[in-house]
Amino acid sequence: MNKKLPDKTVERLSQYRRALLNYLSGGKQHIFSHEIANLLHITAVQVRRDLMLIGYTGTLRQGYDVKELIEIIGKIIDTRDGQKVAVIGIGNLGRSIMGYFSGKRTRLSIVAAFDNNPEKTDKIYAGVQCYHIDQMAEIIKKEGISIAVISVPGEEAVKVAETLVMTGIRGILNFSPKPLNVPAHVYLQEYDMITMLEKIAYFAKKG
Amino acid sequence: MNKKLPDKTVERLSQYRRALLNYLSGGKQHIFSHEIANLLHITAVQVRRDLMLIGYTGTLRQGYDVKELIEIIGKIIDTRDGQKVAVIGIGNLGRSIMGYFSGKRTRLSIVAAFDNNPEKTDKIYAGVQCYHIDQMAEIIKKEGISIAVISVPGEEAVKVAETLVMTGIRGILNFSPKPLNVPAHVYLQEYDMITMLEKIAYFAKKG
DNA sequence: AAATTACTGTTATTTTCATAACAATGTTAT
DNA sequence: ATAACATTGTTATGAAAATAACAGTAATTT
Ligand SMILES: NC(=O)c1ccc[n+]([C@@H]2O[C@H](COP(=O)([O-])OP(=O)(O)OC[C@H]3O[C@@H](n4cnc5c(N)ncnc54)[C@H](O)[C@@H]3O)[C@@H](O)[C@H]2O)c1
Ligand SMILES: NC(=O)c1ccc[n+]([C@@H]2O[C@H](COP(=O)([O-])OP(=O)(O)OC[C@H]3O[C@@H](n4cnc5c(N)ncnc54)[C@H](O)[C@@H]3O)[C@@H](O)[C@H]2O)c1
After folding, report:
1. CA B42 – C1' D28 distance (Å)?
2. A15-19, A61-65, A109-113, B112-116: lowest mean pLDDT where?
3. Strand B145-150 relative to strand B171-174: parallel, antiparallel, unpaired?
4. Entry pTM
């Protein structure tokens, strides 16, 4: 169970868990693979295969124990003490993300923000302190922050990423349109909105 | 060239184009596959394979004609008159996206926004009119909008998507965490930030 | 002129992911 | 008791994507 799961399976596990938490509030204690599948608009086989990969096994004709499954997924995705997240670049997008996560209760908590604009630093956004970028390395190490969200302009993103790698960061979510280059031990997820929209445009084309 | 390209190839084409536009401003007229590859931190083979798929061929020992390639990619991704985009839900994220795209000049233009909050409707955000959600179907049809960005709360997203499908929308980018279900002729791209962060968390875990 | 080099374009292989097929088994219906 | 059913878990197959291998060729070097 310690071996690395496929990327897509991990994505779906996260979604299963949220769907299940929601389902649980309806009072039901068991759920069939095809019910989970319906919640996510995928197939029941996909669900069973994912659960097989994490070694969780349900009961024949009864399905899966919802609470148990939620817990197992938690053991896989979460660490015991949770992981800490920093947001770099408190512009429109950065602030929007901070606001969004301040409500959520997950094992991931945004504990620091960084910006290079003195008008934005030393203030609190969505309950989180924003420091000057020069303090980033120090604070990331001190706080044990392991995940960073990059929402600075493209030109700055490369520098920021380099610094992050030096601090020993382990995961990066990059919203800038600049492709980043990080060593293999840092998990990088790029999200380039323009690319996504242009891809949609291509597939939305008539003909 | 009319046959559908692989999803990932289309993504990269969008990125090649932006990298090339940038490269062009440096004055160079030709570029090698390995130079394109370096810009994106991918391999040269990947680049050549993608270009093969779109049927563009460079010159031996000289590489690719940058302008020509930019133009070819444009012919693939863009339509002659561009496509129109609507943003549904003008909250923190929706406004952030509107602001972001108002600067950019692409063949994709955000031409309308929709919200159900009367305090937000009938105003202009980033140069774009925000209408009441009840007018959505009408305006999408009238304006010929083909792509929608969904940034309403999860509970609302399903309804919104159903309406969008009925208007004949062709592509959807969904930021809500609710998995949507659309017919095959609508291209759907989901982006669930929590899932992405949890995935990063999993791969960032020590062990 | 022959060999080497530096590229492109294509085919072959591998890897990752999704889907299909089916065996196993307890439950319900007859 | 037997047959039909509903559901899980696993193996087999297929599809999409990335990578590797290599053939072709013009320019450059020897
Ligand atoms: N706003 C969006 O919806 C959106 C959408 C897609 C992509 N993006 C990308 O996300 C990034 C941020 O977008 P935005 O709209 O929030 O831009 P923004 O200009 O509003 O914010 C950028 C922030 O980064 C800060 N910054 C700049 N350089 C910095 C540095 N070296 N160190 C620390 N902070 C620095 C700025 O002070 C500013 O607060 C950009 O790369 C943009 O391309 C944004
Ligand atoms: N803010 C973020 O950075 C962020 C990050 C990840 C995901 N999301 C997702 O994006 C969506 C929007 O997030 P947000 O932070 O902007 O929320 P928000 O509450 O600030 O904005 C939601 C907007 O949608 C409008 N709305 C609600 N119901 C509507 C309906 N039926 N029709 C039209 N408009 C409607 C509201 O009036 C509001 O303006 C949510 O689904 C959220 O989960 C947001």
Report:
1. 29
2. A61-65
3. parallel
4. 0.97
